[in-house]
Amino acid sequence: MMEISSRNVVEGTSRAPHRAMYKAMGLTDNDLDKPFIGVCHTGNEATPCNIHLPRLAIKAKQGVSDAGFTPREFSTIAVSDGIAMGHEGMKSSLISREVIADSIELMVRAHQYDGLVGIAGCDKSLPGTMMAMARLNLPSIFVYGGTIMPGMLNGKQLTVQDVYEAVGAYDAGNLTLEALKNIENYACPTAGSCGGMFTANTMASISEALGIALPGSASPPAEDERREKMVYDTGVACVQALKNNIRPRDILTFEAFENAITILNAIGGSTNAILHLLAISHEAKVKLTYDDFERVRRKVPHVADLKPGGMYVMNDLDKVGGVPLMLKKLLDRKLLHENVLTITGKTMKQNLDNIALPPSNDDIVKPLANPLHQTGTAVILRGSLAPDGAVVKMSGVKITKFTGKAKCFDREELAFDAVSQGKIKEGDVVVIRYEGPKGGPGMREMLAVTAALVGQGLGEKVAMVTDGRFSGATRGFMIGHVAPEAYVGGNIALVNDGDEITVDTETNKIDLHISPNEMENRRKQWTPRKPNYESGALAKYASLVGSAAQGAVTSPIW
């Protein structure tokens, strides 16, 4: 049965002032008699990922109206990871995920909306929106703003990843300034989220696997006319979900999260998805751990040849059938839970039965019998350097084991300067610490550093280990999310220059080769650091946030 909370706001003589304010915005008594659907978007001029979302929100509102309910548009923040990258601004990125979830919650609770359409584009706005949906547990549906089209230069498809790597090539003397400028000018031609299987496209794909978004909604580009129809249809579907009383926690079951982990590994998606799935599951009150990620990964082949480790972009995947193609292939191999409920009111299997798929292109999506990797690419590591865990993405990485000598940096900028000055050599393990959830705060992404290393030809000749994060555009032997983090005295804080570190993705180990006695002696000498921020949003986040191994979520202190 429909639960209509908005009646608390607009019914009865005592609510005349409330109705008067709605009428000031053009609503009629007929509009006020209908259930209210919040239409939230993260549109702004900070990023091409989100600049078009206000236009898409109009289509979603039209869908809600045509289906017979009253839409109420509102917006929230979104940080551009690409523009915040490589400087102090990136500390705000992960924190924005929590602010997005909190702000959506507050808007919906304050105005007693009955359902929610959430439209998001850049990296943290996708999980932030889905976290709010799981937390509120009102009939809700997610829709992605869409991928950017790839840039073209000399017959080659470009993404923002190519620009970052071009900076490293320029610093190494392997690229002229004119060539760098050309890549910069052509890489990002339209609105939409970064084009490879980076974090935004990964989380969009996951939204379909979770069942919280309409089938086929992830892959159409931002500027494609299908995107507007998909958003309109999402508005209509939200009305139907409210009528049928389908709520996020009916959909976001443990089995749905296993489906999400499956698609993450099959597409070679961003390691950030591990962090975000842990956070969404926390809001949905589903217990999900690193062990679940590793158990599922071992059963799932990696089949999509997508950037940053592969050749193609999201637009290429869209041309051969998009995420439904991937899900259908996995379903046919019995790698998905087929009977999970989705936002359509149908099961995953029923949704896929109704989708006509074009013949697949084996260049873009390999047959499951002949995959790029026999097992999934989002690997969980544990060992003396990361007792609580760490993550690495193996798509496009040829090596599985690396042993080298540590070069330690206590800030990302110090590491980037060392890379730019040619101080990182083959065989080094670059350790960047005090960049974790509390220590940064905010777990900065290290794309500027990793791309510079790749641009210098060191992508698989060095390793990197950090308690921070990596962009979905990162490639190479790069290990992030080391837990416990340095700020709380994790073992990564005790590494010295020259220490030997081994990372082995076949045995899932990450070890610091010093004796237990030496580790204990260093721990006694270690002193906690003062927080980098003592007031404001970053300080508040640092005081409340937990470990990356649990999704870096914030919890109240009672």
UniProtKB/TrEMBL annotation:
Mg(2+) binds at D81, D123, K124, E445. InterPro entries: DHAD_IlvD/Edd, Dihydro-acid_dehy_C, DihydroxyA_deHydtase, DiOHA_6PGluconate_deHydtase_CS, ILV_EDD_C, ILV_EDD_N, IlvD/EDD_N. It is an enzyme of class 4 (lyase). GO terms for biological process: isoleucine biosynthetic process; L-valine biosynthetic process. Binds 1 [2Fe-2S] cluster per subunit. This cluster acts as a Lewis acid cofactor. Belongs to the IlvD/Edd family. This is Dihydroxy-acid dehydratase.
